[in-house]
Specification:
single chain
């Protein structure tokens, strides 16, 4: 298994927000000592290089998406290209329908038109929400609150989408901190929303 984590700084603050906290249980990384590891995006034939390149581009994509709407499109397309090339590989994680949370499913969800609400949420949450809270906490928090229902649209498009896990794995603790000092009415509203989206998690502020 492989755990991939990434953070990005929040504007005008010492705080860093988690962008990715993902565990991949479908990795197969054969390597022989002394083997050359050369990356060629048009001719991938090495599993180790492909996995490292895939997650490197995914991190870049999520980072750029957090600063601009669809800012990570080019990096998502590079992930898509890697997945496409690795379809013929005799290993798990790259093929469609093998899993709803593998590398193929993840990049397909991020590019799926019916799930673009996630990318809209991602931008609003970070750029208009977290980055704005240094100057106006209430204003930034409201942007986040108004954007969170987009996750319902994402779930409606695909109840098994891995994007919900991408979000909750990265943001669970952060959301609790964001709403820990709000009114009871606002806490209940957000708690009800998140409990509906993520019923296996405890949402107490």
């Amino acid at each position: 298994s492989l755990t991939v984590q990434a953070r990005r700084p929040v504007y005008n603050a010492s705080y860093q927000t988690i962008l990715l906290n993902w565990r991949d249980d479908e990795v197969n990384l054969p390597y022989q000592e002394g083997q050359n590891l050369n990356y060629n995006e048009f001719n991938l034939d090495n599993e180790l290089i492909a996995v490292v390149a895939y997650y490197s581009y995914l991190i870049l994509a999520l980072d750029f998406e957090s600063f601009g709407q669809h800012g990570g499109e080019a990096y998502l397309r590079r992930c898509e290209n890697i997945v496409s090339q690795m379809q013929a590989a005799d290993s798990r994680g790259w093929k469609a329908f093998d899993s709803k949370s593998n590398r193929h499913a993840l990049i397909s969800a991020l590019l799926e038109q019916s799930q673009q609400g996630f990318r809209e949420l991602w931008y609003t949450y970070h750029r208009q929400g977290l980055d704005a809270m240094a100057q106006a906490v209430d204003k930034g928090r409201k942007q986040i609150s108004d954007a969170l229902p987009l996750l319902k649209e994402v779930r409606s498009a695909d109840p098994m989408t891995p994007l919900l896990n991408i979000f909750v794995n990265a943001k669970q603790d952060e959301l609790k901190n964001i709403y820990s000092k709000t009114s009871r009415q606002e806490q209940k509203s957000i708690s009800d929303l998140l409990s509906d989206l993520f019923p296996t998690y405890r949402w107490e502020f």
